[in-house]
Write a sequence for this structure.
């Protein structure tokens, strides 16, 4: 296994449409997934798409950390999962603003409008069909990673750039607001 180099915003691989995975259980795909898991864990991320490690294929990893779960059944804590050749559809019209970061845009966070509920399908690392419904963080992380496969980075989805900034500064501002409210 190996820790892979993560492409940062500005690299063209992050802006291209990724190609379907021809054989999800091929040895080279298995190796890529193992390396991506090591890379995501090393960077303490909650999601990582293949284009972020310079491989333009339709495959990503995601997880729902316990501290990010809303407690809803379709947003339950979930260990790292693999989704290959995914499809995604919104359930209903509802949207919500979700704070997001990205391993390709280190140090920054932004509030991104996302569909509140989605249904997604694909194939896992064993080639088994996956079909799930998701809300909350689970829905947000899947939409974020799915976007990577179409060359879309979260700032491209933002509608209010005043809600975009350095994680450190945003935390400082939030703390100042909380102190002022006390
Ligand atoms: Ni990302």
């Amino acid at each position: 296994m190996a820790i892979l180099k993560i492409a940062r915003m500005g690299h063209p691989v992050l802006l291209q449409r990724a190609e379907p995975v021809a054989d999800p259980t091929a040895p080279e795909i298995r190796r890529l997934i193992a390396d991506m898991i090591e890379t995501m864990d090393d960077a303490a991320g909650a999601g990582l798409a293949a284009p972020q490690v310079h491989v333009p294929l339709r495959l990503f990893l995601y997880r729902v950390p316990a501290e990010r779960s809303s407690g809803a059944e379709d947003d339950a804590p979930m260990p790292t999962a693999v989704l290959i050749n995914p499809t995604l559809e919104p359930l209903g019209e509802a949207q919500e603003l979700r704070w997001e970061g990205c391993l390709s845009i280190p140090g920054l966070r932004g509030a991104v409008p996302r569909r509140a509920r989605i249904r997604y399908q694909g194939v896992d690392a064993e080639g088994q069909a996956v079909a799930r419904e998701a809300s909350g963080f689970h829905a947000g992380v899947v939409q974020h990673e799915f976007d990577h496969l179409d060359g879309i980075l979260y700032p491209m989805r933002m509608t209010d750039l005043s809600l975009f900034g350095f994680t450190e500064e945003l935390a400082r501002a939030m703390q100042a607001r909380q102190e002022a409210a006390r």
Remarks:
- The mean pLDDT is 97.
